[in-house]
Amino acid sequence: MTRRSPPSPHLEVKGSLWITADGASVGGHGRIALLQAVAEQGSITRAAKAFGMSYKAAWDAIDAMNTLAGAPLVERSTGGRGGGATRLTARGHALVARFAQLDAVHQRFVAQLARDAFDLDQEFSLLKVLNMKTTARNQFLGTITAVRSGAVNDEIELSLPGGTRLVAIVTCESTSALGLRTQLPAIALISAGDVLIATGLEQAKVSARNQLHGTVRTLVPGAVNAEVVLDLDGGGELVAIITEASVQRLALAPGARATALVKASDVVLAVVTA
Fold this sequence. Notes:
Radius of gyration: 31 Å
Distance between the termini: 20 Å
Largest sheet: 5 strands, antiparallel
Strand order of the largest sheet: 7-6-5-8-14
Strand content: 25-35%
CATH architecture of the largest domain: Beta Barrel
Number of helices: 7
CATH superfamily of the largest domain: RNA polymerase II/Efflux pump adaptor protein, barrel-sandwich hybrid domain
Order of helices and strands: EEHHHEEHHEEEHEEEEEHEE
Structural class: alpha+beta
Helix content: 25-40%
Number of domains: 2
């Protein structure tokens, strides 16, 4: 019996608006609606009943708002034909009106975010990568832009943020198993030990499919090997482990220009499934 994977969650952009005073919440939709109910009902008791809450809970909320607002939002009047009532002060009416204006702006903002959001379900899957643990020092998120099929192996081209492109060679079986296709987000994993460092190659032609130009940020020397961290021209960083002798021969130092060479067969691809 085939076990089905649970469906991917459908994601939406939502937001909440509330007002604070010195870090303490004065009110959000719930408390502002309670103030509006007091204004309409003329009574905390009736407003509480309309909200399905106790009088004490309603009064505690109003009392907290009065304190945090710095001026009374609700006041009680006594006497008169009705025997007294509870009403909003001018400050309370102003707060309710202002909140309504801010909420309208906020709702338009959230709606714009929802329209501009790009395939949130897919992006949520990519966020899972943040919890992924691998031994590869270099992990790049990108989008597959080309799949060139061969008899045994396929060539997969990945576009990274900033315009950098990586090429990976994988088996046809891996292409099928991972469902690799254009426009699919994927992760490229590169071991630091598989990265070659060269200098003076920015205008040269070499057989390595992946040539990543950048500037040396840090060098961490060791007894035999050194760790080299490059700030890539297209953004991001790449870590390489090379011998100390190579560091000396290439005259590598922070600020020096260098090129990282990675064979396409040394790039491992991964995708996030639902």
